[in-house]
Amino acid sequence: MPLTNEQKVALFRNLVRAMTFDQLMLRLIRSGRLVGFYHEGSIAMAPGVAAGSFLEKSDILWPHLRGHGIAHMVGKGIDITTYFAEHMGRVTGCCKGRSSYHCSFPDDHVHGWSGNMGANFPMSVGHGFSAKYKKSGQVVMSCSGDGSYGEGRAHEAMLMAANWKLPVIFWCENNQMSQHTAITDIFPGQFISALAAGYGIPAKVVDGHDLFACGEAALSAIDHARRGKGPIFIECVMVRPHEHSVGSVNAAGAKKRDPEQMAQWKATLDPQKAAAKSLLEEGLMTQKQIKQIVADAGKEADAIEEFCEQSPKATPPIEELIAGVYAT
Ligand SMILES: Cc1ncc(C[n+]2csc(CCOP(=O)(O)OP(=O)(O)O)c2C)c(N)n1
C-alpha cells in the first residue's frame, strides 16, 4: 500500500528520534548510569518504527527486544521519557523504576517483555481472539526476531491464528543472528516467512534497511488484519553490525564476527541516510528541514537525559515492593 508524502515524513521523523534515543541508551550504559544491559538497535530500527507508526491507539503492540522496543514505541506515540526513567531506576519511570525494561504501557496497549523469548506469541493469539470475539476492531502487531521462530510457541500461535482467522500480524525482524548464533546455523531455509505458508498465512519479505518499504508493508498488513482477512506475516531482513548486547557478560565462546564487515554494514546500510536521500530526491524535504528534525531529536534526547538525572532513584521499602507482586 503506497505511502502518502505526509506518512513518509512522519516515518522519517520517528526513525531519526528512535535512532537518537538508541544512541542515548548507549551513552547512558557506557557511562554507568543505566541499570542492566542494552540490546543496541543501530541500523535495525526501521522495521520497528514502521510496525508502530500506523497503529491506532487501541491496537495491541508487542514490541521486539532489539533497541528495547524504542522504535516501535516511538512509532506508536508512547511517552519515551518515562521509559528511560524506568531503565535508570527512577521513581518517575513508567513502573516506578522497578522493572528495568521489563515493563509495559497498558493504557496504550503496549506490552513489554518477560525476558522469555517467544512469550509474545501465545499472548498475541489471546489478544487476537479477544479482539475478534468482542468485535473491537483492534489488530495485534506481534514483533519478534528470527531467533524466536525456533520456539514451538511460534508455531502453535501461527496455527491457531490462521485457523481462527485472527487479526494478528507476525512481524519478524530478521537480523540473521539469534544472540550469538548465525541464523544459517539453526535454520535450513532462506526466509523465516516460508514457515507461514504451512499454515496458509500470506507472507511478504522486505528490505529491513528500507524505511519506506517497511512502512508500506506495515500499512498493508494492518489493512489486511483490520479487514478480517486473518493473520499475515511480514519479514524484514537486515544485518546486525554489532554484538548482541552492551553491558552483558555472556558472550564467552561466541563465534568471532568480522569487525570490518560490521563497520561496512553500518556505513552503507543506515536506513536514516537512505530515507533522507530519497526524501531529498523526491523533493519532499529540504536539507534544512532534515537537519531541523535531527536537531530536534537531539534536543529531545538531552531533555530526557536531564529529566532522568533529576528524578530521584527508586529505593522503595520492601512492603511497597511486594505490593506490586500479584502471584508467586
Ligand atoms: C526462551 C528463551 N530462550 C533463550 C533466551 C536467551 N536469548 C535472549 S535474546 C536471544 C536471541 C534472540 O534472537 P532474535 O529473536 O533473533 O532477536 P535479535 O536479538 O537477533 O534481534 C536469546 C536466545 C531467552 N531470553 N528466552
Secondary structure: elements and pairs:
Elements: H1 5-30, H2 46-53, E1 60-62, H3 70-76, H4 80-87, H5 120-134, E2 140-145, H6 152-163, E3 168-174, E4 177-178, E5 181-182, H7 194-197, E6 203-207, H8 211-226, E7 232-237, H9 259-268, H10 271-281, H11 287-310, H12 318-322
Thiamine diphosphate (TPP) is lined by residues 39, 65-66, 115-118, 144-148, 175, 177-179, 244.
Keywords:
two-stranded antiparallel sheet, 328 residues, alpha/beta, binds thiamine diphosphate, Rossmann fold, 7 strands
Largest sheet: 5 strands, parallel
> Which range does the strand content fall in?
5-15%
Q: Cα-atom Rg, whole angstroms?
A: 19 Å
Q: Please, how many helices?
A: 12
Task: Summarize this structure briefly.
With 328 residues, the protein is an alpha/beta fold.
Structure description:
The protein is an alpha/beta fold and 328 residues long. It has a single domain, classed as 3-Layer(aba) Sandwich (Rossmann fold). The protein is 45% helix and 9% strand. Strands 1-2-3-7-6 form a 5-stranded parallel sheet, with helices on both faces. A two-stranded antiparallel ribbon has the order 4-5. Helix 1 runs antiparallel to helix 10, helix 1 crosses helix 11 and helix 2 runs parallel beside helix 3. The model has no long low-confidence stretch (mean pLDDT 93). Thiamine diphosphate (TPP) binds next to strand 2 and strand 4. The site of thiamine diphosphate has 17 residues, from strand 2 and strand 4.
